[in-house]
Design goal:
By secondary structure, the chain is an alpha/beta fold. Helix content is about 60%, strand content about 5%.
């Protein structure tokens, strides 16, 4: 090939002519390329990072053995690419070879740091970068900062990208490695270690591959592993190389592959943390955020198509759970099916049971990616005697958003310490996430895979036993929380015995029980629904009963769902007492939501069931709540009549029910204008409530008395009782009663003209009622 300079920076090549490299041609070629791009020697030296003297010696021919690194830096500075770059590098090798042939034999072939012979090129083994790579901006910047510019470092720079299969570890590693190519002009090595497979690449084989890529022939390959390590580190000493180790199993596999000097860097991808790798820094990949997932989807299947169905795109991405592999597969399926709507594919992914079936395209499959890690779990089951694969399967049976360590221990049927070992192993392999010191959760798609594994690999009786254990744990733990919270509980039925292998929690005080119930609120809903789906009707009904009482102090949306399935279960087993109580609770929950007519209908269903069961306490409770429903519907005479009859239903009334009945009757008297009579009734009710230990009733009675005193002109008493109601409600963490107390205090302060403080109190009451999803207090 001949090159003729046409003008500034332009070359004309004749591919039919082949130029023979002769001594001195590189110096001429360097000068011609430099002049063609219009650079002085000083400007080229600054651009290449070489001294002007080096440029001068190369162009004059005084330097006849150019360093490989210098040649690559010059090619970069001259912006040579394609055939021009290849020609430039060949010319440099020709000069080095000719100069070497004039050396004495004993000095040939091993000049450390200079260009290798023509048969050994600088390795450039990186797989191609992904053209549609999107997002991960902060992670890319962090990795580049970790690995780049190590000229002053003596220690090897090592960065590990870790995460579950399908999270994009290898893609990110390759993308970053391409960004760093100019930082490592002596080459980039890439080795697939197959660490997640059943047979990973051995250390010896990995070293052999690396040495072969560095130009060591098979005949000269050291036999001993230690000698291979030494030869490998000698070969790359003082060279600036990037070594990418993909899919590493553990630190034992990686350590021999680390360089001995700080001129090179190592980028590792692994499903394990490799936390024990000395000097390494770890980046744990998590799910793509919404913006990055949307960008990836748009890049693969056209932005206009995604923009046309924004809501469907959001649903589709939500069902991919931010897993890059899942998003890529979904996008590829849409790209190959231009007549499909995004909504159609989102609907196909709606069912958890079929989601993994849909998330496959060509040789890409989310299930297959997870299967690799699961196979590794199966292979490690014998280590330490812990069956990690079985733990993974059984955890898939739990439908909650997360699971605490004690609950997981019950599910697995082991003690907490053994459960911790199993769960931490799953965390190490990114099959499970640790959300806190004692709480864990699945990625949604991994949960779906876990359910599949349980269905296919766990006996049905083992699965049912696990479900019974975790439900028993929740029921008896919630029941013990009731005792510590000093809330009402029924004593007329015995809870199902604690299942063997379940160890319910004990609570030392009120705050400990309140902390647990607040943290587990969503999970108790999941527990009740799990019992219902498994057809465990007695457990479902009893658990719904216990859950209602444990959460009586704070109404929330889960109440109605829990009570409805509990009612269906109690009806199925003809448990009229539990059926009546749960209907009563549902009526109360509906009144909290302001649905008074619906509440009355449920309470009227409960009344004959309570009589059928012969449960006088339940009958009195139902009657009292029917009265409250009538009161909310402005049917005051009927309300008062029901409350006045309550006292005659049970000859041995429960103090709590009696106190609440008296309090509600006093409230009704105030409502119809019999304020003084109502205040006296509520004062007696307050004494009764205090004797029963009903803290929430105590707070409510004080709020109601505050309202009565305000109407009677007793402003100081109204303010005092409202403040005491507020203190009690906040101490027992009863947000419903706290809202009532803030409202009563605001009304009392308004009465005395303190409008600024009154506005603050009423604003707080409004905020709490909005948070609880209940109507604002009307009084």
């Amino acid at each position: 090939m001949s090159i003729r300079i046409i003008g500034s920076g332009t070359f004309e090549s004749d591919s039919k002519t082949v130029m023979t490299v002769i001594s001195g041609s590189f110096s001429t070629l360097l000068r011609r390329y430099r002049l063609a791009v219009g650079l002085t020697q000083e400007e080229l030296s600054a651009s290449a990072g070489l001294s002007a003297r080096t440029i001068s010696n190369l162009e004059s021919g005084h330097t006849t053995r150019p360093y490989q690194r210098s040649v690559h830096l010059l090619a970069d500075a001259l912006q040579l690419a394609g055939s021009d770059r290849a020609y430039f590098l060949r010319a440099a090798r020709g000069v080095a070879r000719e100069a070497g042939e004039r050396q004495p034999p004993e000095q040939r072939g091993d000049p450390r740091g200079q260009l290798p012979g023509p048969e050994v090129l600088a390795p450039a083994q990186l797989p191609p970068d992904i053209i549609e790579f999107t997002g991960r901006t902060r992670q890319v910047e962090w990795l580049v900062a970790c690995l780049a510019d190590g000229k002053q470092s003596r220690a090897v720079r090592v960065a590990t990208i870790t995460g579950v299969g399908g999270m994009g570890k290898s893609t990110l590693a390759i993308h970053v490695a391409h960004l760093l190519r100019t930082e490592f002009p002596d080459g980039q090595l890439f080795v697939e270690l197959h660490g997640s497979r059943e047979q990973p690449v051995s250390k010896a084989d990995a070293l052999t591959r690396l040495l072969r890529h560095l130009g060591v022939p098979e005949a000269a390959m050291p036999k001993d592993e230690a000698d291979r390590i030494a030869a490998y580190r000698t070969k790359i000493a003082d060279r600036r190389m990037l070594i990418v180790l993909d899919d590493a199993r553990d630190a034992v596999q990686v350590r021999p592959l680390l360089p001995g000097t700080g001129s090179s860097a190592v980028l590792i991808s692994s499903r394990s943390w490799l936390a024990e790798l000395e000097g390494g820094r770890t980046l744990a990949l998590t799910a793509l955020d919404d913006a990055d997932a949307l960008a990836l989807l748009s890049t693969i299947c056209e932005p206009e198509r995604v923009a046309a169905e924004p809501e469907a795109a959001r649903e589709l991405l939500a069902r991919c759970g931010g897993l890059p592999l899942a998003v890529r597969i979904a996008a590829a399926r849409l790209a190959s099916r231009p007549r499909w709507s995004i909504g159609a594919l989102a609907d196909r992914l709606a069912g958890e049971g079929q989601r993994l079936e849909e998330l496959q395209h060509g040789d890409l499959a989310v299930r297959a990616s997870f299967q690799v890690s699961y196979a590794a779990l199966t292979g490690s089951a014998a280590q330490g005697g812990d069956d990690y694969a079985r733990a993974f399967r059984l955890l898939g049976l739990w439908p909650g958003s997360d699971i605490s360590l004690p609950a997981a221990a019950a599910l697995l049927g082991v003690d907490v310490r053994s459960a911790a070992r199993r769960l931490e192993r799953l965390v190490d392999m990114h099959m499970l996430e640790a959300t806190s010191e004692h709480s864990y959760r699945f990625h949604d798609l991994i949960r779906a895979f876990s359910v599949e594994c349980a269905q296919q690999g766990e006996p049905a009786d083992s699965c049912e036993s696990a479900v019974r254990r975790v439900l028993s744990w929740y029921m008896h733990t919630a029941d013990r929380a009731l005792t510590s919270l000093e809330l009402s509980r029924r004593h007329d039925f015995a809870l199902a015995p604690v299942e063997p292998g379940a160890l319910p929690l004990e609570f030392s005080n009120y705050d400990a029980a309140a902390d647990w119930s607040d943290a587990e609120r969503d999970n108790v809903v999941a527990a009740v629904m799990l019992a219902f789906r498994w057809g465990l009707q007695q457990i479902c009904a009893q658990l719904a009963d216990v859950v209602w009482r444990a959460y009586l102090r704070n109404p929330w949306d889960g109440w109605v769902q829990v009570l409805e399935v509990g009612i269906a279960s109690a009806a199925a087993i003809a448990d009229s007492a539990t059926h009546a109580w749960l209907l009563t609770f549902l009526g109360i929950a509906l009144m909290y939501r302001g649905k008074h007519s619906e509440a009355l209908a449920r309470l009227e269903q409960a009344l004959p069931l309570s009589r059928l069961a012969g449960d006088l306490r339940c009958e009195a409770t139902v009657t009292g709540n029917i009265a409250i429903a009538f009161k909310e519907l402005k049917r005051y005479d009927e309300a008062i009549g029901h409350l006045e009859r309550c006292g005659s239903i049970d000859p041995d009334p429960d103090p709590l029910v009696q106190g609440r009945t008296m309090m509600n009757l006093g409230m009704l008297y105030v409502e119809v204008g019999r304020v003084a009579e109502g205040a006296r009734q509520m004062e007696r009710a307050l004494e009764m409530v205090n004797r029963s230990g009903d803290h929430s009733g105590d707070s409510l009675a004080r709020s109601l008395l505050s309202d009565a005193y305000r109407q009677l002109g007793r402003s100081e008493d109204a303010i005092r009782f409202a403040r005491s109601a507020l203190d009690i409600s906040r101490r027992v963490r009863d947000q419903y009663q706290e809202a009532a107390a803030w409202n009563a205090l605001g009304q009392a302060l308004t009465e005395v003209g303190d409008t600024r403080q009154a506005h603050s109190c009423l604003t707080r009451a409004l905020a709490l009622t909005r948070d609880l999803g209940i109507p604002m207090w009307s009084r």
